[in-house]
Amino acid sequence: MKRSLKWGIGLLVVLLLAAAVGRGLLARKAAGAAAAAAASAAPVALDLAPEDLATASRRELVRSLEITGAIKAVNSAVVKAKVAAELQQLNVREGDRVVAGQVLGRLDATEYEWKLRQAREQSAQAQAQLDIAERALENNRALVNQGFISKNALDTSVSNAAAARAALQAANAAAELARKSQNDTVLRAPIAGWVSQRLVQPGERVAIDARIVEIVDLSRLEIEAALAPEDVGAVRIGAEARLQVDGIAAPVTARVARINPATQAGTRAVMVYLGVDPQPGLRQGLFAQGRIALERKTTLAVPAAVLRVDQARPYALAVIDGKVVQRLVSLGARGSSPDGGEALVEVTEGLADGDRLLRGTVGGVREGTLVRLTAPAGGATAAAATASGSANAAAAR
Fold first, then answer.
1. Nearest alpha-carbon partner for 238 in 220, 219, 253
2. Which of 98-107, 132-141, 169-178 has the lowest mean pLDDT?
3. Among 3.20.20.60, 2.40.420.20, 2.40.40.20, 1.10.472.10, what is the CATH number of 50-64+297-378?
4. Over 80: is that where the pLDDT of 341 sits?
5. DSSP label at 308?
6. Contacts of 22 (CB under 8 A, 6+ apart)
7. Alpha carbon distance 324, 317 (integer Å)
8. Which of 31, 10, 183, 30 is nearest to 112 (CA)?
9. What is the average pLDDT score of the chain?
């Protein structure tokens, strides 16, 4: 009996302990579920870096027109052979500086020297024939006065003298042509500049009008840009343009110098010529792209990156009191900042000066989302360094 009572008491104690443990586990599970529900119900704030925001403000907006083209020299020349001959010498190479009238090379002048000598001999012969004809004319005039010859014989002497005089003039002209051909064997620079191409080597025989040397003057450069007919009407002489040129880090300034009065055959494009301000490193043939400033005005503008067009009307996401608010906007002119930086768009309705806006890099964000501006990386690093230094100082003390 006593043994049964002991076993009963022990079993009751075990049951009581198991019930206490079960109640504790249930209470802990309920507390965890309540904490998870509370965490899921609490709003989550979107962390934003300073570069994720832009500000609507009144600023200078430059309405511009995009252009592309190649840099070319205003003055350039190709030295061609004026006579057919063998190239004896060429004294310049690519990159050499030359001045106007400088001797660049020579063609073989042997043939033209002999032609000049022949023409001079023919001229001397014609002069002798003219002398004979004039003496005969003088004698016949005396004879006709004395009645020894007829008037017809005198007329014949006059005609012979005139023919001899014409023959002399023709011979003199031929001698001048031969002299010019001889002089043309000397190759001279027509303009000052730099040699850009050397197209023939000494020893080669060249034909008339064969290209020998090309010279470009880099003191005056321009860019040729083709514009659509609907765009060229807004371009004005003197309008400024900022260009990015291959190989040149700094922006290059140019101004509209001329507008072609005719269109290009086939494309119907209109050529616009912009004078480029001199700058070291500019070369003929470099590719350039940039914008011509059409209009400047100060207005409320925002970066184009903050505008969103996935709805019926364009809109922007503004940050007001820590929340994202959608603002429908009406847009005006498009352009860029005066320094040619990011693209700007005029806002005529929907935003106020000073509104902070989300850039497109943030992605899609629902209206009403809480946002929180985080410190920039540099600031966080500095704060961490300051805290570490304070801790080290405290440990040292």
1. 253
2. 132-141
3. 2.40.420.20
4. no
5. B
6. none
7. 6
8. 183
9. 84
320 in Cβ contact with 371 (< 8 Å): no
Nearest to 83 by CA among 186, 169, 235, 228: 186
> Whole-prediction pTM value?
0.62
Amino acid at 72: K
- Residue 108 three-state SS: coil
Structure tokens at 95: 């990159």
- Which amino acid, one-letter code, is at 377? A
Q: In one letter, which amino acid is 270?
A: V
Q: Can you list the pairs that 331-336 forms with residues at least 24 positions away whose Cβ atoms lie under 8 Å?
A: 331/307, 332/299, 333/61, 333/63, 333/295, 333/297, 333/299, 334/63, 334/304, 335/61, 335/62, 335/63, 335/64, 335/295, 336/61, 336/62, 336/64, 336/291
Task: Please give the Cα distance from 294 to 255 (Å, whole number).
Answer: 12
> CATH assignment of 66-72+217-295, given 2.40.30.170, 3.40.1350.10, 3.40.50.1820, 3.30.830.10?
2.40.30.170
- For residue 322, the model assigns a pLDDT of 87
- CA pair distance 239, 209, nearest whole angstrom: 40
Report domain extents, the chain. 50-64+297-378, 66-72+217-295, 109-183
